[in-house]
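My current task is to audit a protein record that another person submitted. Alongside the sequence sits a line of tokens, each denoting a local backbone shape. Please read both lines and tell me whether the tokens look consistent with the sequence. Do not assume that whoever made the record got everything right. Thanks in advance; the entry in question is below.
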Amino acid sequence: MNGFDVARSALFHSARSALFHSARSALFHSARSALRVAIVAGGFASLVLVGCPSGGVGDPCTPEDEYRENFSGFSLEEENIESRSFQCDTRICLVNHFQGRVSCAKGQKEPTVCNTADGACDGAAGEVCKDAGVIFNDCDPKPCGSPGASPANCNDEMGRNPACKNELCDKDGRYCRCNPSNPQCPDRYVCDAVSALCKVKVCTLPLSHADKNTRCYVPGTDIPIAVEVCGQCDQNSGRDGPDAVYCSCRCGAPSDGSSDADKNFNFCTCEEGYTCEEIRPNVGLGDAVVAGKYCVKQGTKFDKDTVNCGTVDGHVGESCEGSPK
């Protein structure tokens, strides 16, 4: 990897992290706020806490990103190191240049939005219109000028808040209320007049439908994924779910840019069938003790010059790698 690629990779992970923490409110903040605001309880009653088994190196894991209904999946150009995964004994869920979602092997085309249009879904094919996401943006309803209030995040006399683009901040729910006359919702989302939240509904198939594997859902629920998802690469490519996403451990410091923290780091030893390979270089951005080498399945080391997704048994859109089956 040359200097440009290293810098680009670091910038990508820095930006992606920022976007993730902003966008994750679509699911995680909604779950938390549902306890405070009853307005979403009905639409998302089917979302339950799913127990996650712990595992050692090589055991399967589902990355946290996949619990967001607006996450379209990973791409072959990226790697992702989830360093606080409670599904893994090692706390590392490694995504080593993988396409799509672990929880949706075949992927799906972009679902049809059915926010307002009657009959948008193909009832003859078994489709139903279902809630697929709600966006919560946190805000502080503390009155501007009061002790501890931030000028960038406080309510004026009318309840308007700069953090909400000068729209209202809900006192009880502590979230930004959208304005139906000026919704400022993301593409495909609409401002719900009752809850004053940006929501999206899409056409999907019930979990009881025979063709449910052609659609994607938030793992452990019947909440549909609201975006296009690429199908996984061929099982012989070394880049499908079982070969590219699993629990791993940090087995060595990066070849260049080792940090002081690495001197006392308790590196693991890779088991038989695994090799210690550099996954992420350290270029001074992000957590230095995450950069470095990890145990990967033997024969699956990523090479950008020779990688071949192969035949995809599922959805292959314009942004997807591989050829349709």
